[in-house]
Amino acid sequence: MDRSTLHGSGLRTKQGKHAGPVICQVVGYKNSGKTTLTCSLIEWLTSSGFRVAVIKHDAHSFDVDHPGTDSYRQRAAGAQGVALVSSRRTAVMVERQTPLTELINGFEDYDFILIEGFKMESYPKIVMVRELDQLPLIQELTALRAIVTWLDKRDVSAHLSIEQKEAIPVFSKEQIEEVGTWLKLLYKQHE
């Protein structure tokens, strides 16, 4: 399967089966506004009735568990995987890096999967551009579908090829509704 297309759509097919989620990465350099954009899109999409899942890459080690809990004690005792399940929430912790495709498969019943980071993966991308010196990233990425920028949109467009100008919309960071509408259009195109 070519991951560079927005495979799946989260829609029900004419037969009523779920066609899979629209997958879109939000990428950019540190402090470019990825999390802010992702949170704004989550709010916009969920208020429009969509179910949204998020996968976030963390370049640092992290721990969601803390000393004193039973699950922490179980991990400290040597458990390589721990699942916490309540009536409202489930968390799974494994002592390995989980492949992105495996994480995506766990969210197959959602309408959208927004992936923050994983820049070198080949899923459709929105790139965040905060500074002029970040513009070369546009040419380095695969499957670039949109640009969201802190800069004047004309400055960004000036760095695009003719083909890119025709195919890749450029949004300002304030245009959340327009980015959400663009994602919604992609969703509808896969009906």
TrEMBL record:
Under the heading InterPro entries, the entry gives: MGD_biosynthesis_adapter (IPR052539), MobB_dom (IPR004435), P-loop_NTPase (IPR027417)
Which example biological process does GO assign this protein? Mo-molybdopterin cofactor biosynthetic process
Where does the record place the Molybdopterin-guanine dinucleotide biosynthesis protein B (MobB) domain?
23-150
Q: Which GO terms describe its molecular function?
A: GTP binding
Q: Which domain of life is it from?
A: Bacteria
Give the matching NCBIfam families: mobB
Give the protein name, as stated in the record: Molybdopterin-guanine dinucleotide biosynthesis protein MobB
According to its UniProt entry, this protein's organism is Paenibacillus pini JCM 16418
